[in-house]
Amino acid sequence: MARTLAQLRQELLLGFRENFGNQVKFGVQFEVTPSAVQSFEEKKRQQFAFLNEIDFFATESNTDQIIHMVDGTIVDKSIVTGSRQASGTGTLSDRKFLCRAIDQDAQATWKEQLAWGRQKQAFYNIWRAWVLRARARGLLRVGFNGQTYLGNANSSLTNYPMGEEIQEGWLEYMIKNYPQNVIGLVADANGTILDKDGNKYSVEQIRIGEGGDFVSMAELAQYGKSKIEIVYRGDTGIKVIAGDALNSTRKNELMRAAIDPMQQAAADSLLQMNSVSNMAVTTPDEFPVSGMCVTNPINFQYVYQVNGVYREVREWSDAKATQDLLHMQRDFVIPVPEAFVMVHPDAPMVKVNDEWSHPVGWTEWSLT
Q1: Who is most buried in 5, 29, 301, 363, counting CB within 10 A?
Q2: Contact residues for 240 (Cβ-Cβ < 8 A; gap 6+)
Q3: CB of 175 closer than 8 Å to CB of 182
């Protein structure tokens, strides 16, 4: 028999109390303990495959030096006489992260909850799985597409559906902090794109395909890897992170080049291997369709503050809904920009009916 709304509400409250303590009440904000914050963040990893590859970094500070796990330094030396000096592995950066305050507020109508309640699973588990998935997707969407921090007063998913205005994400971090490793970004006195020092840039189109700047996505990816500093270039964990449109272009290139059955079989084999230039290719959820990065995924760092996290579950009778409100602080950084090369999402052009155009699904990167 289907559960009533009152029964679902009781199950939800008991589930919250089991996980966060008996102080939890509907309509009352409570502070989440650091251990519970870390447990929740680690559960986010399980929601999307790419999150298992990146660096989750917990901190008690709002800002501090960036610590990274990207390999590049060795400790070998030839034998010398006199005192010996050890080398550090260089995991502490001279740059800093800055956690921004953001809200992650989820809402489910009573009608939706009654539909969920027909399942035999405990209602709190259904609720938690739904909220976890939504907040993990938000991590990826803002992490890849975030361009600025307007503050909550100006935040609007209607105007900025990809979370562009919530805070700067990983790609914008590179544009602002390390523009020399952003392919397609060129210095321009009249440009409208500014780095952290106020230098101006504009986007130069990159044509991918026969007769273009790069004959294939594979050639562009190899060029990107060549721009990684040599001490990081030998990392076999380097991958090509490519948007869906660029990845589709790569697949189409392979199939068009395959003329006879033997070549077609070879093309199929390459596609199954999902690699270019001896680098694995991956297309994470929420990644810009025309974007590309060449790096080890561990170089994507998600920094979250374990203290100052508040949560509240409340009923909103006007909307006939239950809300799960979360307030936290986080940042998205690239710990080792020297080991990260990207293509500006506005730069790639591909041939469509013998005309150069942006890939299908492209939307302009710069906020207007």
Answers
A1: 301
A2: 221, 224, 276, 277, 279, 280, 281, 282, 292, 293, 294
A3: yes
